[in-house]
Design goal:
324 residues; alpha/beta; Rossmann fold; 7-stranded parallel beta sheet; 5-stranded parallel beta sheet; globular; binds (2R)-2,3-dihydroxypropanoic acid
């Protein structure tokens, strides 16, 4: 027996973060099928003081019934928490934290990588060679789209959106326009060579590349729908490292198939790990399996930040990254 709080991770974490967690908590790691099945959730809610879920978890409604449950806190391993019903957590008195900041650079790097890969055929060229199709250099094969100096449009100008703007402005001389629900401090905007526009449509119409950095779920579901895809230039590319449900995937697949937009770089999907079947056969999109924060260093930092939040919670202090 131990008097450390009992914590369950719903999926394994990087080793260094697990070792750190074991110093402070009586820790178990769910090693079975993913996402963690509902019956395991129901048992866990009675057996653990806290649970650390991830984006793939499907929480049962009982998760929010803190009076009946031993579990009083969720330390979410991730910045996005659209898989958690925050209103239910607040009304049930369930503490919830997330991991902002530590994955900003990794995610912006991945978004820029997808932009380059989609525009310059980096992934397509790789497959060209593997398929044995390369017959040697010539001036007209696999021509891509010029990136340096092209206009980048950003939807959602929080930490990751701003980190993307920084890469585009300082690294690629790209003029940046963006849409954000609240007004961004003009000093921040000016330092990134960016311009805030009043509507999403204005950003879509002005951009050669559109990168999504807003939260998923709620009113952002299908924010990019058929009408908004039609507002993009036919030469433009859509980059999504935010959440799959921000885009109507069927409408996007159609826009890619018909050439209504030129291409896409996608890290997230509406019904992960399923991917719309049309996307997997289209050559003008680059597909990644939700790798935005996937570096050893970043995933370790995410685990350590979950730990800091849970430590605060069990000390009775405010969690530094509380979202409920
Ligand atoms: C995040 O942190 O939101 C990543 O998408 C993984 O959940």
């Amino acid at each position: 027996m131990t008097d450390k709080p009992r914590i369950l991770l719903t999926t394994p974490w990087p080793r260094r973060a697990i070792e750190a967690m074991r110093e402070h908590f009586d820790l178990d790691v769910h090693e079975g099928p993913l996402p963690m099945p509902e019956d395991r959730w129901l048992d866990a809610l009675q057996a653990y003081d806290g649970i650390a879920p991830t984006v793939i978890d499907r929480l049962p409604p009982q998760a929010y019934e803190t009076v009946q449950n031993r579990t009083k806190v969720l330390g979410n391993f991730g910045v996005g928490y659209n898989h958690i019903d925050i209103a239910a957590a607040k009304s049930g008195g369930l503490g919830v934290s997330n991991t902002p900041g530590v994955l900003t650079d990794a995610t912006a790097d991945q978004a820029m990588g997808l932009l380059l890969a989609a525009a310059r055929g980096i992934s397509r060229g790789d497959w060209h060679i593997r398929a044995g199709e390369w017959r040697g250099w010539n001036p007209i094969d696999l021509l891509g789209t010029h990136v340096t100096g092209a206009t980048l449009g950003i939807i959602g100008f929080g930490r990751i959106g701003q980190a993307m703007a920084k890469r585009a402005h300082f690294g690629f001389d790209m003029p940046v326009v963006f849409h954000n629900r609240s007004r961004i401090d003009p000093k921040v905007t000016a330092a990134l060579g960016a311009r805030q526009l009043d509507s999403i449509e204005a950003v879509l119409g002005a951009s050669d590349f559109v990168s999504l950095h807003c939260p998923g779920g709620g009113e952002n579901r299908h924010l990019i729908n058929a009408t908004r895809l039609a507002a993009m230039k036919p030469t433009a590319f859509l980059i999504n490292t935010a959440r799959g449900d921000v885009v109507d995937e069927t409408a996007m697949a159609e826009a890619l198939r018909t050439g209504q937009i030129a291409g896409a770089g996608l890290d997230v999907f509406e019904d992960e790990p399923k991917v719309h079947p049309d996307l997997t056969s289209l050559k003008n999109c680059v597909l990644n399996p939700h790798l935005g924060s996937a570096t050893e260093a970043t995933r370790t930092e995410m685990g350590l930040l979950v730990m800091a939040n849970l430590q605060a919670f069990f000390k009775g202090d405010p969690m530094p990254n509380a979202v409920a």
